[in-house]
Structure formats: C-alpha cells, structure tokens
Here is the input.
Amino acid sequence: MAQLDVDRFFSRLEKLHSHFVKHNPKVWMSADCLCLNRGPVDDESTYVKSAVLHQWIFGYELPDTIILLTKGGDFYMLATKKKCDFIREASEKIPKNSSIKKIHLLLRNKEDSNAANYDALWKAGGLGSEDCKLGVIMKEREMNVASGGILGPWEAKLTEALEAKEVSLVDAAPGLSFAMSIKDSDELELLKRSSILANKIMKHGYIKKMEEIIDSEKSITHEQLAQIVDEILENPTKIGLKVTSDDVQSCYYPIIQSGGKYDLRASAQSNNENLSHDIILVSLGARYRNYCSNIGRTFFVDPPKKVSEMYELLLEMHEACLAAMKPGNPAKAVYKAAVEFLRERDEKLTENLPKTLGFATGLDFRDSTFLLSPKNSVTIRQGMVFCLSVGLQNLTLSDSDRSSCSEKSPVKKLSTYSLMVTDMVAVTGDSAEVLTKMPKNLTDVAYKINDGEGDDDDESGAEAPAAPKGDAELARKLAKDNQGKGTRTSSRLARDADTIKETQEGVAERERKQILLMRRRNEERVKELARANRNKKDGDEENQAEELEAYKRTRDYPDPQPNQVKVDMANHCVFLPISGIPVPFHISTIKNVVMPEADNATLLRINFYTAGVALGKEAPANMVKLVQKYAPYASFIREMTFRSLQSHNLTVAFRQISELRRRARARELREQEEADLVEQEKLIRTRNERVPRLSDLTMRPVVSARKTQGSLEAHSNGLRFISTRNEVVDIMYANIKYAIFQPCENEIMVLVHFHLKNPIMIGKVKRLDVQFFTEVIDASQAVDNGRRSMYDPDEMDDEQRERQLRKKLNGAFRDFCKKVDLVAKKNNYHLEFDVPYKDLSFTGNPHKEMVTIMPTLNCLVNLTETPFFVVDLDEVDHVHFERVTYMSKAFDMVLVNKDFNKPIWRVDMIPNGDKDAIQEWLTDMEITYTEGPMNLNWKQIINTVKDDDRFYMNTEEDEVTEKEAGWEFLRMFGKDDDDDDDPDEDDSEFGDNGGGDEEEEEEEEEEEDFDSIGDEEDDDFDGEEDLEEEGLDWDEMEEQAREDDRRKRRMDEVDDSDARKPKQRETKKRRR
Here is the structure.
C-alpha cells in the first residue's frame, strides 16, 4: 500500500506556500488563493502541470482531486475516502513552526453531489467578487470540465462565477514552475541517476546496435531502430543494468535522423525512411522515478573535413554556453554566449542556430518557463537542472567539401546537414556540472568505413589553421592513416585510443575532485586543531609534574648506619652519606649506577638526571617534567662516587639499587600500558532465552602462550569468549568500534574481527583488535600441490567436501553475525558487521610480508595474517604514494595519521596496476592523496608539520604571503617528471614549485602522461626494486654515533645497560 512521506510532503508544501506568499504580485499574478486541480489519469498527458505537482508534493498522482491553498496556510483537499486516508497522517503531524496551519480533508459526498464541499471551498477561498483572484492551471481547465467526477461540476461552477464576474482567474502555472525549479538534494540525486541511466542506454544500447547495423550493412528504418532503443529504455536489463522496471520509463519516443532530413526541435519524430550511414542525429530521454533526463549526440560515418571542423566548432560553442550557466545570469545569457562565440568565428553561422538551446527539466521534461532562448530574462539559480541542447541546423555541404569522400559513401549525396549535442547540466555553486558524462569528442563519435578517393590526403594535416588542437588533430591524423589502405574499419574510430581517453577523463575528473577535497579538508582540519588546542589548554593542569615524596617527616627515616649507602626498598629511596649525614634520594632521580672493577678499593658511582644533559628514553616521565620545571633556577647533583676498602656494603647497595631501578621501570611501563585503559562494564548474561553461540573457534591474540580455542556467546550487553581452559574474554558492544565478517572465499579461514574503541587487557598486553576464526583447511595443505592425503583415492571428493565445508562455515558465521546484530539492537546498542570488498583488494607489504589488503566501509584491513593490519579511515589525514614513476613496477603507500604523535601506516610494494583503483576508492571515501617519485623522510616531515601552527592555512603568519596549504606541497613530486626544461630539479622534501597555482596545467600534464602509465599496468611484480626495510637514514645514524662519542668522553665508564645500546645501533646499521 502506498504511504506518504510526511517529512517530504511538508518540506515541499511549505516551499510552495512560502514562494506563493513571498513572490505573489510578480510571479503568481496577485492571486488570493490557489486552486490546483488534478483531473483523471491520462497516459498521453504525462507532463501536465498538475501531474508534476502531485508527484513533487505527494510522490504519487491523486486523480480527480481538488486542492485549495490559501495565503494563511490552510490546505483543503476534496477527494475520495481512500485519498483522504492517504493524506490523513500528515494532517495529524503538522510541524510546530510550519507555515501550513491546518489540513482540511473533505470527503466526496454523492448524496448532494458535493454541494456542501463546494460551498466550503468557496468560503475558504473568499470567492464571490470580481476582486478575488483565484490561481488555476489555465491549460488544464478545458480537460477538467469534460472529466466529470468531483472535478467537472467544480470547474463548471467556476465558469459560471467567471461569467457572472464573481471571481477572476489567473494562471498559476508559471508560479508552480518557479517554486519547483530549484531542486533539493534528493531531487538532484535522482536526476543524476536518471542521467546515468540515459548515458548507459546511449552507450551500451543505441551505439552497440548502430555499430552492428553499420558493420553488417543491414537496412533498418529510423522508426524500427527507435523502437529497439525504446524497448531498452523500458527494460534496461536487456543491456545488463540491474534497475527495477517500475522505476524506469522513457521520456519520449527516441528521435533518430539521418540522410539530410533533420529537425532539432524537441518535438521532432523518427520517420520511416532507412537509416543512412552518413550524419546520424540521436536523442533519447530516460525517466528514473519520474525524474527526466535527456541526451543527444551526432555520429559521423566517413565525415568530410568540412563537417569535422564544424563539429569541433560546435563543441567549443557548447563549452561557451556551459561557462554562461552560472547562478545569477539570465537564461538568455546562454543564447547570447553562443551568438557572441559564432560572431567571432563566422557571423553567418548565427542564422543556423535553433530558436532555443534547451530548457529546465526535472519531473516536468520541458518547462517552458525556463527556456534557454534569446529573450528569456528569468534568472538562473543554484540547484536548477537544464537540458542544454546546442546545435547548428541546415548547414550546407558543397561539391568541393564532399570531393574527398568515397563514391560508395552516402555522405556523397548530402547537400545539407545539421549537428547537435545535448547534455544534462546541473547549476552548482559557481559553475555548471555536466551529468551525462558520455564522451562527445570527434574521435568518440566518428567512424571510418570507406576509402577516400580524393587527393585530400596532403591537405588534411597541413591546413585548417583555425581549428583547435588536441582531439581535432588526433582525428585528422587517424583519418589520414586510414585513407589509402584499402581496408574497411567497421569498429569505432581509434577504439584503443577511446578507452585510454575515457580513462584519462576519469583521472582528470578525479584530480579536480581531489583539489576541491583538499581545500575542504584543510578548512576542516584548521577547525579540528583549534578545538583540540582549546581542550589541550584545559587539560594542561592535569599534566603538571608530581613532586616526589617518600617520607612525610624525618623521623620516618629508617636507622641507617653512619657513612654507609643504604637502600630502602619499601619507600623506593637510597640513603647516601654526605659529610657523614644520610641524605635520601628517590630512586627515580638516579639515572644509572656503576661499579668499576675492584682494585685496591671498591668504587660505586651514581649518576643522576640533571638539566643540560640528554635524559634518555628510559627517564621516568615525571622526572623529565621535574627537570624541566626546576632547570631554570635549581642546582643539580650530576654524580656521586663512593670509595670503600671493604666491598661488601657497596656491592650490596649496587645490587639493591639496580633491582629497585628495574622494579620502578617495570612499574612505570605497566602504568603507561594501562594508562588509556577504560574500565569496562560488567557483562550481563542472557537468561531464560537461547544465547547465540559459535563453537570450535580460535582466538587471536592468544590469552597465554598456547593456542586459545573455545566458543563465543552473544549476551545482553556484550560478547563472551570461553576457552577450553576456562579463560574468559569479554567484549562489550559499547566498546566495539567496527565489527567485520570475512567469509572464506579463496581464504583458508572464516572469521569475525572486532576493532575496539578502547583497548582491553588480554593476558598482560592491551589489545585493540580481537579476532575469532575457524580454519577451513590446514595452512600447510593449502600450498601443497600434490595429493593431500595418501589414503584418499579420489581428490575430487575431497574438494567437494571442502566446498561444502566452506559453504557451511560461511552460513554459520553469517547467521551468528545476524543474531548478534539483533541482540545488540534489542538492547539499544548499534552493531553492524562489515564485509570486506573483495573486488577492491590489492597486494602489499604492511608488515614485512606480502598480504592481500581489502577495504571495508570504514577500514583498510588485512585480517588473515598476523600482526593484523587495521587502518581506521576516520583517523587518516592524508595518503601519499611513493616511488610512482614510469620505470618502477610497484609503488608504496603512506597513510598519515591525524594524530601526528602516532606513527604513520605504510604499505609497500603495491603493483602499479592497482593504483588507479585505489585512488578512485580514496576519492569516493573523501580522503586526499598525492603522489611522488621517491621515498620521503616521514619522521622529519611529521616533526615539521607538528611544529607548524599554520600548516593547514594558505597564508604565512602575516596572513598576506600565500603558501601551499596542508599536504598540497607534496603535489610537486611527480608533477614535472617529463619537464625537459628542468632536468636537474631539486629533490628536497620541501619545495617552492608546488602545483597549487597551476591546477589546470597539472591536470593536462597528467592526462598526457596517462598513456605511458597504462603501458606498465600489465607488467610483472618486481620484487627486487627499491625493497628496503624502513629504518634510520645515514644522517640520523651518524648523528647518533657522534652523540655516543660525546657521552663516552663525559663518562669514564658506562654501565651494562648503556653498553648494550651501541650494540643495538650497530645491529641496525648492519641490517640497514
């Protein structure tokens, strides 16, 4: 049963009412109220204004209905009971601040022939005098009078009142057009889908059929071909489009013209003459959920040079018209732009322009209020959608123009011809967006069939000085190459070039989106960082250094023996004798303790943390803060050395101090490990009903050192895993950020994975990712090409069992996920399982091993191998592609974290063939990316970015000097790879020649470079090129070595812990 969308109903009814009140004198002819009547349904009157209005407001047509709308906001509807019930829900849910005050539903009354209802409407409209103006749809009155039913007598009553001068009628149709002209976001989305539908039917329906006809030289009339296209429009599944048939219809019967008889009007029709293989004009329109779209193209078979040049001129005129379709311009500015363009080229061609260049469209296919004509002064506004139809009609073709054509070509018989290009255009913020993306360049619509017989070969490439460069030159070159070879080319001209150019257009469009996205993301990040800085200032007090206090009073000291070093293990203090007086030192103040080899006496050296010296990584965080706090005005003890002829006391002290330092260090590490742990709520077990359960699961990571197997249960507020050793792990629904279900499709396991908001302790380690899986086959068998079992006589049975097992496990896990989802919703938790997109997967090396990486709705993951690779896309600030060159066969991908204190994510050795798909996916996910030819020093870059408060702003601190905002500075890498004028370009990480000011040139260069990129996509994976382990660069290692030398000169000896550090660095150097 049909149901009214109440929110949309009030949104659009309020929009209509406010427009009626606000623009009443100018647009609505000073009408006092509106009477918007819908007569009976008529298939031949699809686009009558009342039908369009009903579809716009109600989403359905309500035939034989009277609607009255007053200035005060009273809405009256006279209809049958079923239609009144349809609207009744809205009458009970009028928004508080709505301009619609009340909805009055009048039921049809057959007993008095609706006399009482008519009187109620008459009174509500204030009718009864000639001064009262009633807004009606004038064109539909005659049709409504003859309809009978509810509407017929009412229209008769209005006619009588008009003759008696009891009422004045004015036309409300223009006002309705204005009210519905600016489309909301839902309407724009439907128009985009409708345009895509028309685009695909033209590309995969009409063009394919036309090529078959031209190839086979089959005779077919325009009417027959139009019938085939119309059937595809009514049923797009014929070309493989999975669209519900109830949602699609054709706007009009397709128009196909050829053979010299052309009509560029929207009312043109296909005739019964045979299709001629010369200049073919095609127009078709599709409706998706009643929203209309239109597309038109001109196709050429063996086009003469004159026709090709004229078509290129038409495309340039099309661009000029698009440039004029800006918010604030009048509709006639589009026609004026075409006229001015032609006057610059050839003023005589202005006579060949049609009367209009298009019209506004939407639910109404052709809204005559918004014609793109030379006299229409209606203002174009943001949100309007037009059908832009640019054409030149009745152009002449002389004998000399046709001389280069083959005698076999039908073009030889043409004396006049017409050209036309039609597109759907949406008026956006400051420009026009073409919704029908089908290419229209000459190389996309021209076919070469017959050999040329003239001597135009020498002229085709040398003349045409006024013709534009680019596609025209390519078309002339291809035409010249094909002439004189005696071959018949029945496929599309330059089909391979067409595929490359289509991909190029996608790359250019993606780059344009990235530029806009970069700007928007920079603005968002400035706001985010401003909020974060405010919160950081609020939390600075919590980050203050904590004073050390081991004893409250001196009498709490233990009783140390004089002139001896004593360690108080309980209070974490070391008593050191200074001038015979024991002085306590907290263990956290001691940097290290050294006991050199004994000689005549035993020595014990104690080094302390002091200002002016590197504290080291093992320094307690609180001690670092204390040193920074007291450094400006306090004096520090750097070291103390004790000497004793008896070694016992100092040896014991050395061991105790070392042990106490180890304990303090372990305690601090444990506190840091548990610092961001959030106390979890207790699991509420489900009772008195069946609990969803998955058995025979393996958990990763393991609870203890051994493999953890058990079962997973879904309870009221969380999941509980119970191992076979009675180990329990609870995961609360409220703590699950992302839940992922990965079926075993070409994998050795089926799994569910949980990425958590806050880490939980598993064993003695905190974990953000927990996974439960079941292996389908043993991993060792998965790579075995031989017989998997010496006792299995028939491996086909084994494979069949494996397929059945995969299907069974997938079904069991999928059912469990659905049940968990239901349990969570039942208890007011939101939990939804994502499934990785297998078709977007690619191989890469995130953790020193080549794995398959797949995106999900919110993450980029590899869940099969450990350690898990899970990147939360909400935490990704920017993506940069490294080693993108024409010579390399693989590239690296760096994902920068929004929190610059956290490390970046890397995926190395991704095959070049996956780059375009990854970049397309990143653009869809609204994540910015750049690319460059080299590996960058990200540690240095992140440190620089972190210290730059104006990183995401496009000006320096003076707010005048412009700079590249955000990650735009990385655009310089790879931009000028083919620039022969500057071969010695600087390879620095930060440069001044970024592409921020030359966006259009950059896009053109990238499109030109695409040919060479495409040649590499099928190359094999090069596992040796640039495969380097990420580590310190040579400058950093040399600096560390110099620092080590300085430290050795300051100290006579180092303890065991310091002695191990240089060995670790040497190991890193060797590994490097």
Observations:
- Residues 452-497, 779-783, 973-1032, 1052-1072 have pLDDT under 50 and may be disordered.
